[in-house]
UniProtKB/TrEMBL annotation, chains A, B:
The gene is dAK. InterPro entries: DhaK_L_YcgS, DhaL_dom, DhaL_dom_sf, Dihydroxyacetone_Kinase. It catalyses: dihydroxyacetone + phosphoenolpyruvate = dihydroxyacetone phosphate + pyruvate. GO terms for cellular component: cytosol. This is phosphoenolpyruvate--glycerone phosphotransferase. Residues 6-190 form the DhaL domain. Its EC number is 2.7.1.121. Pathway: Polyol metabolism; glycerol degradation. One of its GO terms (molecular function) is phosphoenolpyruvate-glycerone phosphotransferase activity. One of its GO terms (biological process) is glycerol catabolic process. SUPFAM superfamilies: DhaL-like. The keyword Signal does not apply. The keyword Nucleus does not apply.
Automatic annotation (TrEMBL), chains C, D:
One of its GO terms (biological process) is phosphoenolpyruvate-dependent sugar phosphotransferase system. It comes from the Bacteria. It comes from Halolactibacillus alkaliphilus. This is phosphoenolpyruvate--glycerone phosphotransferase. Keywords: Kinase, Transferase.
Amino acid sequence: MELTGDKAKAWLLNFEAKIQEHKAYLSDLDQAIGDGDHGSNMARGTEAVKVNLEKIAEPETAEVLKQAAMALISKVGGASGPLYGSAFMQMAKTAKETTDIHELIEAGLEGIKHRGKADVGDKTMVDTWAPVVEALAKDALTNEAITQAVDATKPLKAKKGRASYVGERSIGALDPGAVSSGYLFTALVEEVLQ
Amino acid sequence: MELTGDKAKAWLLNFEAKIQEHKAYLSDLDQAIGDGDHGSNMARGTEAVKVNLEKIAEPETAEVLKQAAMALISKVGGASGPLYGSAFMQMAKTAKETTDIHELIEAGLEGIKHRGKADVGDKTMVDTWAPVVEALAKDALTNEAITQAVDATKPLKAKKGRASYVGERSIGALDPGAVSSGYLFTALVEEVLQ
Amino acid sequence: MTMGVVIASHVDKIAEGVYQLIKESAPDVSITYAGGTDDGDVGSSYELIEAAINNNEADELYCFYDLGSAKMTLDMVSDMSDKPITIFDAAFIEGAYTASVLIQGGYKKEEIDAQLAPLKIK
Amino acid sequence: MTMGVVIASHVDKIAEGVYQLIKESAPDVSITYAGGTDDGDVGSSYELIEAAINNNEADELYCFYDLGSAKMTLDMVSDMSDKPITIFDAAFIEGAYTASVLIQGGYKKEEIDAQLAPLKIK
Ligand SMILES: Nc1ncnc2c1ncn2[C@@H]1O[C@H](COP(=O)(O)OP(=O)(O)O)[C@@H](O)[C@H]1O
Ligand SMILES: Nc1ncnc2c1ncn2[C@@H]1O[C@H](COP(=O)(O)OP(=O)(O)O)[C@@H](O)[C@H]1O
Ligand SMILES: [Mg+2]
Ligand SMILES: [Mg+2]
Ligand SMILES: [Mg+2]
Ligand SMILES: [Mg+2]
């Protein structure tokens, strides 16, 4: 499946809407095991993405992804800023070679891993991205698969980011970045894959 | 030799005058191996000592020493505050038992060591106080002995306080706290021992 | 026994800022702070540190400091105080953050001490 | 090759305060800082950290950060910058103070790195 410029833009605007809708929930999740700002961070960041994208009249995939990266890098303010920012920056670079969705999201995952040094099982957004990449490889990304990946962060003990400070006490809580990544991929299913 | 209340007061007022006179020099010494505030710290502290002592009409040794301690503890603002403060507090306590100068200064040295955990040779004020205590034990405290102790801090490498950060580079410099302690004991010679 | 955190810095802005940083992740922990001299200069103040210790609502206090002379002042205040006070020679901000978050998480003293041990650098 | 220090904190007051603390003992070292988000909230800002790196007059930079997300932002800026930049996983204030004082003292890179090694806690 190809990610055209128009679809990329629709995807990210849908993501923005979902983040705004669940802003308080994301911050509540972050309050439990972090500092309680993931919702407002992502709301600020995706709002800036929206502003950047609305300026683009004829969207081109790499440019859309790059504008999203720049907005997230400069406006999020938390760890999720450089992480999502690196993901979209890698996707933008890759989009110059291919617009295949699986390859793009895989590049995004590499960007996150490069920046945050987290692995699968560390209870971070990587735990959403990695199974999504696998599902996309088999052309089998569904909302159920996404929910399953997100929920699977619950029993994990956080090993990266602020949640790692609470150690054992992070067990049983959803990872906020995994949840916001879930919205990103639900938006992808809605705007691009369906 | 006994430290009467009047002599104690005269001693500390003389010390204050010496500190004010050499304020800039003490700060310069501290700029070389520390943060450049020892002169202003001690000036502020001894100024407060003076204010406290001037309120005492009939000086009593323990009370004079205690007032000095309180002023130094609350007004110096640098490491020398708790150090000189602990010295005078120990002296004030000891003065309830004896006003023998050797025993008082020895108690002061113990106060400094308890607070700062420094030993002889660490390039601190202890390197002035320790030889002074020895000289007092032999009733042989002179200005020469004081100068010799102070100067002997030059070749040492700082192991405590801010100067310890510059390590090797502290070698060759006088320790500011050793120098200010030198003034304290020169004032003692002038007002009490002579 | 509730546990609280005391922050002692040489600079008023650092103390306030560390408080701000930590409160976000430990909103229910009693955290008090003292920074700089009475006049707002760089240094430490017996009165301000004493007030931070007295005003802390917890039964038992974990204290963190930036440089050695704030430790000596903490020591003096601690000698005069009845509260159980532990002064940690840990990385200042990282130690205070770790302790606060763990107290917020309801961890026991032994567990907190174990987490702080690798942060000891002074 | 002159060496400079960059301070990156999650809080503007902490960054300013650390600068104030360090400048007293390292008046001749180029020290720049960035704290908080663009809006002055707790967090980190790419623009502010980039500016702190660009505005530092030294040829080679030693960077210190308080919590991990400031490190990631430093990392990103460093990827984009031509200056030689080392990000130290050292105790934040203690590491920045040590490095600055040693640079002020004219120590060489190897000696400074050796002094910073025991402060590594992240
Ligand atoms: N090193 C890391 N690698 C991958 N993801 C991380 C890492 N650190 C944090 N995260 C993600 O970032 C989320 C928190 O983001 P946010 O609250 O915006 O930042 P902050 O923790 O700086 O306040 C976490 O829930 C986690 O998913
Ligand atoms: N641990 C210590 N034990 C004894 N003396 C010390 C110690 N630390 C510092 N000093 C003394 O304090 C002096 C510095 O005092 P000052 O400049 O007023 O404080 P600060 O270093 O906090 O700025 C040093 O020159 C040294 O003599
Ligand atoms: Mg957060
Ligand atoms: Mg945050
Ligand atoms: Mg000083
Ligand atoms: Mg000082």
